[in-house]
Amino acid sequence: xxxxxxxxxxxxxxxxxxxxxxxxxxxxxxxxxxxxxxxxxxxxxxxxxxxxxxxxxxxxxxxxxxxxxxxxxxxxxxxxxxxxxxxxxxxxxxxxxxxxxxxxxxxxxxxxxxxxxxxxxxxxxxxxxxxxxxxxxxxxxxxxxxxxxxxxxxxxxxxxxxxxxxxxxxxxxxxxxxxxxxxxxxxxxxxxxxxxxxxxxxxxxxxxxxxxxxxxxxxxxxxxxxxxxxxxxxxxxxxxxxxxxxxxxxxxxxxxxxxxxxxxxxxxxxxxxxxxxxxxxxxxxxxxxxxxxxxxxxxxxxxxxxxxxxxxxxxxxxxxxxxxxxxxxxxxxxxxxxxxxxxxxxxxxxxxxxxxxxxxxxxxxxxxxxxxxxxxxx
Length: 378
Ligand SMILES: Cc1cc2nc3c(=O)[nH]c(=O)nc-3n(C[C@H](O)[C@H](O)[C@H](O)COP(=O)(O)OP(=O)(O)OC[C@H]3O[C@@H](n4cnc5c(N)ncnc54)[C@H](O)[C@@H]3O)c2cc1C
Fold this sequence. Notes:
Strand content: 5-15%
Number of strands: 10
CATH superfamily of the largest domain: Butyryl-CoA Dehydrogenase, subunit A, domain 3
CATH class of the largest domain: Mainly Alpha
CATH architecture of the largest domain: Up-down Bundle
Strand order of the largest sheet: 1-4-5-8
Number of domains: 3
CATH topology of the largest domain: Butyryl-CoA Dehydrogenase, subunit A, domain 3
Structural class: alpha+beta
Largest sheet: 4 strands, mixed
Bound molecules: flavin-adenine dinucleotide
Distance between the termini: 30 Å
């Protein structure tokens, strides 16, 4: 066991931190929703293609190195909503194209996905299929050299910005979850309508909305994997998303902790810095313990993925620990900053709003606990 990073990992981490500072407001204060120029600023840092093959312009990185870059991205100050948009594009969309797309489709899509010319969105959730994605209402019906896609996806991150959707639907109603198929669907195909972005609690830079497919004819070459493999492909992409994407919350927590320590040293009440009060110093100790233990679980989940040993329990432990630490630490940060912590624009309240959805997307905390309990033998 080796807890040290390699020279290359250290250097890459520092480069991302410096890169965020160099790009400035494009990354630290993007628009709502992000503008294409801001997405391209993230792409220039390599963030949109971290784990895509080098031959398509990606970074060729494994899971742990991808996670470290995402962590550095937000620690350096990149907006959490923009980082989430990039992470969803990369891990829930580019990964299935990388691992299950036919060669011509990989060649058509991956270079643009890595380089920032193409934004991708993952379309799984439906009004009737949230935590339970075993039965999907969306229909995928083969008709010659095309699939006809019909259905409504109810919560699609990046929807309004997307150039390509990774869509899951049912191609065989009698086969249960083994009857699901995945398609990469270019946005320009007729029969796709994208709703207005939702008004959300947080992650404002990342637009999310409904997407309707109505008689949308998708050439068969855009199928990912085989017919019936959709559910397995989704699980594969979730093992990457649940592991790597949450590293952006590690970066947020690191930055947040530094801000809290600085504030606890600076702010004086009753004639001393508030950090001298045990209530405050122990709060900071607990925040540190949550962050560091979550960090180790995340690195382990990524390490297993890099050794072709994806472990659903290890991934669930990591996802649960990081997301719940992000929410708990953000509440503590608001408390440490006091009244100003509650005000918009100070940082703490946005960190809290950006953290709350992390216990919902990529499988809720309850679902992670179910997976962990099953892994424990129940
Ligand atoms: C910010 C954000 C971004 C998202 N982006 C995307 C995206 O890009 N693409 C996409 O397809 N979806 C996306 N989603 C949707 C997300 O995947 C779903 O919200 C999530 O899977 C939960 O589904 P649901 O909202 O229908 O809740 P439900 O499944 O209805 O759950 C409601 C409550 O019941 C609990 N529950 C349900 N089943 C069980 C069970 N078996 N055991 C214990 N408790 C249970 C849940 O934990 C939860 O507390 C996003 C969501 C958010 C908040």
